[in-house]
Design goal:
Layout: E1 6-12, H1 19-29, E2 34-40, H2 47-52, E3 59-63, H3 70-80, E4 85-88, H4 100-106, E5 112-116, E6 123-124, H5 128-145, E7 157-160, H6 161-166, H7 177-187, E8 192-196, E9 198-199, H8 213-232
Parallel strand pairs: 1-2, 1-4, 2-3, 5-8, 6-9
Antiparallel strand pairs: 4-7, 5-7
Length: about 230
């Protein structure tokens, strides 16, 4: 096999019902020489075993044994990646891998390209309360950070490997690491672009995102703290 041009990192926890379909769709959608790295947080449903049984030569599973840690799983995948470009996305089929070729194409002129629910042409098809909370977080992020990114907490990111080697992901409870990453990248002068996509709710498995108003409020506080900390960072 030629050295991978693209490394696609899939952090997983209890995604046994979705991972095979996602890998099939990635394989069909991405014509580039690629590797798919599934980094599993020791899922009780044994997601990593499902991956190991798949007949794809360019797919490998890494099983982490230190408990659930989304950012740690993504960073491990980035560290292991051998591609010129690195992409990570959720493994619950909420993000369409069919957008990846467009993101890769944009990386010829940009350092980081994100899949965006809120750029022109994008859609967020989740329940109203979750869409509203995400919109509010992004509105506040734009006020405080003063940097033109419409979807700061996307979690669907493509970047040049050389950029990610200089900017490790900050520890996070939820997806607030993405806000800090994009803001820091902008301050450092890296060029960022957003590619619109349609975000859908998962069809199988349990959501790891807060669902109740109280839980969303608590999560919002975590995001606000990260936004303020990023703004004050020198």
């Amino acid at each position: 096999m030629k050295e991978a041009e693209v490394s696609i990192v899939l952090p997983t926890y209890n995604e046994a019902k979705n991972i095979s379909t996602l890998i099939q769709r990635i394989d069909a959608a991405v014509p580039h020489t690629k590797e798919i790295i599934v980094v599993d947080d020791d899922s009780p449903d044994k997601t990593w075993e499902v991956v190991e049984k798949l007949n794809y030569k360019d797919v490998r599973a890494i099983r982490l044994l230190k408990g659930r840690n989304l950012v740690g799983a993504i960073q491990r995948g980035i560290d292991e990646a051998k591609g010129k470009y690195v992409i990570w996305m959720d493994a619950d089929l909420s993000m369409p891998p069919e957008v990846i070729p467009q993101m890769i194409e944009n990386l010829e002129n940009y350092d980081i390209v994100t899949g965006s629910r809120y750029a022109k042409g994008g859609k967020d098809q989740r329940p109203f309360i979750r869409v509203a909370s995400s919109r509010i977080i992004n509105f506040i992020a734009n006020i405080f950070l003063n940097f033109k990114v419409l979807d700061y907490d996307t979690g669907f990111v493509a970047a040049r490997k050389e950029v990610l080697e200089k900017m490790r992901l900050a520890p996070s409870i939820h997806g607030e690491y993405c806000i800090e990453l994009l803001y820091r990248a902008g301050r450092k002068g890296y060029k960022i672009n957003e590619v619109p996509y349609s975000f859908t709710d998962r069809k199988a498995g349990e959501s790891k995102t807060a669902e109740t108003v109280h839980a969303l409020w608590k999560m919002g506080i975590v995001y606000m703290k990260r936004i303020i900390r990023s703004r004050l960072e020198r």
